[in-house]
Design goal:
Helix content: under 10%
Largest sheet: 10 strands, mixed
CATH class of the largest domain: Mainly Beta
Distance between the termini: 43 Å
CATH architecture of the largest domain: Sandwich
Order of helices and strands: HHEEEEEEEEEEEEEEEEH
Strand content: 25-35%
CATH topology of the largest domain: Jelly Rolls
């Protein structure tokens, strides 16, 4: 966000004009940004202020972008405003991030995973969110009356009470974790709890030099883009996706890496970032599995056609009272925020 002069009366004459012009050109990096842009927009349908940062153009000169039509290329670089940003520059994580699935469980039993997600494994330090998996046994109630012991704890953060969009772009700058049964992922799910679609715009299965971007269309049907060639644990890279009801475009470091028109994601999707351990897709932990692994997130930026329409009013707890629930749904930017969620399935 461009800076503004807090006290313009201090400056006189031409100096005031010159200083104001220089400050207006300063980059957004000088603006404090720990989720600040969630409140920086305008009412739905109103003109978006120029001060709100816009989505940068993507590189469409890649082989993966060859199938894009002229109309799709214009849409891909449509300079949407930010609807959410978190650079993790504060001392703690924004309370809008949630640490378990919206359907109120902190593991994925469908995948037979070995970890239990807990807030203490998600820590902000030196401008980076660290999602850490540890080898430690915990016993938790998975569902009412069902207790299970997990050999690992780990971390998830998700945006179901922060932002969601039926059309938009999400970009995450991250440094991956690797090792036998270590399973980091960046992905989107429908806010109403349905499945599919599911958009996995970064998913890795232990090998640091191989990752996948996958659009799940229906059970057993998916569009998959495989990537090799660099070590995802050696440094930070930017993974992203832009979508509407007609097309899904995957990106890495600002370059188009996959295009699919196989699904119609026509409902608001929210972001999940997690570090799973073990399960159907990566196998069980072994002696080669590290005792500790960390998935680092440097920044999360979401863009959308309107600067505020997709930013959700915070709901700390979805009430079981029908009257209070109706009130929460009216106050939320999207009424599905407090609907019961189905458990997410996984196809093989």
């Amino acid at each position: 966000m461009a800076r503004s002069v807090d006290h313009p009366h201090v400056f006189k004459g031409r100096w005031a004009v010159a200083v104001a012009a220089v400050l207006a050109l300063l980059p957004a990096a000088f603006e404090p940004s720990n989720s600040a842009f969630a409140q920086a927009g305008s009412p739905s349908g109103a003109r978006v202020p120029r001060s709100i940062p816009r989505a940068p153009d993507l590189d469409v000169g890649t082989p993966a972008a060859a199938s894009l039509t002229t109309k799709e290329r214009r849409w891909l670089n449509s300079s949407w405003p930010q609807i959410w940003r978190d650079d993790f520059n504060g001392r703690s994580l924004s309370p809008r991030w949630q640490h378990c699935y919206p359907w109120k469980t902190c593991t994925n039993q469908t995948n037979n995973e070995y970890q239990w997600y807990q807030p203490s494994n998600a820590k902000v330090s030196r401008g980076v969110l660290n999602l850490t998996a540890r080898r430690e046994r915990v016993t938790r109630e998975v569902t009412p009356g069902v207790v299970r012991t997990f050999p690992y704890t780990s971390a998830m953060v998700q945006s179901s009470q922060a932002f969601a969009a039926a059309e938009g772009r999400v970009v995450v700058r991250a440094r991956s974790a690797a090792g036998q049964a270590i399973w980091p992922a960046l992905w989107l799910l429908p806010l109403d709890g349905s499945w599919p679609p599911e958009i996995d715009f970064f998913e890795q299965f232990g090998d640091p030099t191989h990752f996948e971007q996958i659009l799940h269309v229906q059970k057993g049907v998916k569009a998959q883009f495989n990537h090799d060639g660099f070590d995802t644990t050696a440094g930070f890279h930017t993974y992203g996706v832009q979508w509407n009801r007609d097309i899904v475009v995957m990106t890495v470091d600002g370059r188009v890496t996959g295009v699919s028109r196989a699904s119609r994601p026509d409902k608001p999707l929210y972001l999940l970032m997690n570090l799973a351990v073990g399960g159907n897709w990566v196998g069980a932990p072994t002696s080669a599995t590290p005792n500790r692994a960390t998935f680092q997130i440097d920044s999360v930026i979401a863009y959308g056609p309107d600067a505020t329409a997709n930013v959700l009013a915070p709901v700390s707890r979805c009430s079981r009272s029908r009257a209070r629930l109706a009130s929460q749904q009216r106050q939320s930017s999207h009424p599905d925020q407090c609907r019961p969620h189905k458990r997410r399935p996984r196809d093989s």
